[in-house]
Amino acid sequence: MATLTRWDPVQEAVTLREAMNRLFEESVVPGVVARAGNGGTFVMHLDLSETADAYFVEAAVPGMKAEDLAITFENGVLSLSGEIKQSEASKERNYHRIERRYGRFTRSITLPTTVRGDHITANLENGVLHLNIPKAEEVKPRRISISVN
Fold first, then answer.
1. What's the predicted TM-score (pTM) here?
2. What span, in angstroms and rounded, lies between the C-alpha atoms of 114 and 62?
3. Per-residue pLDDT tens for 85-143?
4. What H or E segment, with its residue span, contains residue 13?
5. Other C-beta atoms within 10 Å of 117: how many?
6. 122 and 56 in contact (C-beta within 8 Å)?
7. Separation of alpha carbons 132 and 127, rounded Å
8. Is 21 strand, coil or helix?
9. Using a CB cutoff of 8 Å and minimum separation of 24, what contacts does 120-126 make?
């Protein structure tokens, strides 16, 4: 016996939009898409800023605990990874919509200049991961004095 499925043009438009967004993010904006372990993708949003002495990264990791996150720095590349786990209770429910992402993810960014990797500090507060990445002495701006004879 054949089953009839009602055609939903809105759902197809959303799927097309998601495919176009994914294509754009993966090809035009390298390094922005974080890979989820379950085959899906999602973006770990972060801000990268700097002062004369350091770089600062603020990454949105809502609902995550420090033990669920890993931070590595190697060859000028800062990598943030972790896992968002689905609760056991929610696996027993029948869902109508799932918009939150679950699984492992990784986000890597290349820092533009030499930094002191051994002095990076991290703090997790209210769902935001704060990283302080000090610049190496040789890349900090210096004022050169002029001597007069």
1. 0.64
2. 30
3. 777 766 778 878 777 777 788 889 998 778 888 899 999 999 999 999 999 887 666 77
4. helix 9-27
5. 16
6. no
7. 16
8. helix
9. 120/71, 120/73, 120/78, 122/71, 124/61, 124/64, 124/65, 124/66, 124/69
